Amino acid sequence: MNFNKAKEFIYKNARPLDFARWQFLFEDGSRENVLSILKMYQNEDGGFGHALEADCWNPDSSPVQTWAATQIIREVDLKEREHPIILGILRYLENTKYFDGHVWANSIPSNEAYPHAPWWNYTDVNEVNYNLTASLIGFILRYASPKSRLYQTAQRLLQEAYAWFKLHCPLESMHTASCFVELFEDSVECNISGIDLSEFESLLQLQMKHILTADTSVWASEYVCKPSLMIHSCNSRFYEENKELCNFECYFLSETQQEDGTWAVTWDWGCYPEEWHISKNWWKSDIIIKNVKFYLSMQ
């Protein structure tokens, strides 16, 4: 892997937030710098918008954009429960009209007024979907006060989500599966009782065997599930069972890095061509950061 080429692309092309993430992760940069830029994407209601999730340019607060913020909070390992950004997120998750008492909505109506990928089209079809929600439950259990009403809600949601996962495992959606991995890891970290964590771990091992794309010949050209989506270090409980595929991904990253330091973006909006061109460039920086982070974590 050519670290210097990756760095050069970031320095020339990345959004300020991704530039700050790069510096924090790989150059002893400041956590507060990342958070101060992240705060610019946060609205008064505590939720996030403004294309923080680069496939949706809606400035309004939405669950998916807010979830994207929680991913960055996890990345910088913010532990301060009373941090204003975290308090705002918790307030939004508790009060948004896009929570039906069981799951947060994947898309919201105002998405339709702004450029976005087709998978963020608004639909009013009511179906249980734990993509985003499983991860958000874990975030609440990690950061909310155990005395709060929202924490009590998250405990109920944990029971519901786990019952649903047991019923539907193995899932076909890699992103939903990834959210359940995060929920499991948060539950272990917070020593959550009320669900069988050993059983949860066993089910997730089966889930990974089902969802990880073993046919590595399609990795470079198709949007597939690679280990890095769910296994973030050699210390992961899921590393040993998937060690061979993790090692191959490191080799794959070294072999497929492009001359400009990037990796291929393997999806396309198929609409809004000018805006997609911009978002695609944003995604290149995000992919660089995630790939370098994974590669280094496996060494």
Q: Could you describe the 3D structure shown?
A:
The protein has 299 residues and is mainly α. It contains 11 helices and no strands. The mean pLDDT is 96.
Summarize the structure.
By secondary structure, the protein is mainly α.
Which helices and strands, and how do they pair?
Elements: H1 3-13, H2 16-26, H3 31-38, H4 63-75, H5 84-95, H6 133-143, H7 149-168, H8 174-189, H9 197-211, H10 243-256, H11 273-297
End-to-end C-alpha gap: 12 Å
Q: Average pLDDT value? A: 96
H and E order: HHHHHHHHHHH
The biggest beta sheet reads:
none
From the spread of the alpha carbons, the general shape counts as: globular
Strand segment tally: 0
Q: Output the number of helix runs.
A: 11
**Which spans of ≥5 residues are poorly predicted at pLDDT below 50?**
none
| Content of β-strand | under 5%
Structural class: mainly alpha
Rounded radius of gyration (Å): 19 Å
Instruction: Give the proportion of residues in helices.
Output: 40-55%
Please give a handful of descriptors for the protein shown:
single chain, 299 residues, mainly alpha, 52% helix, globular
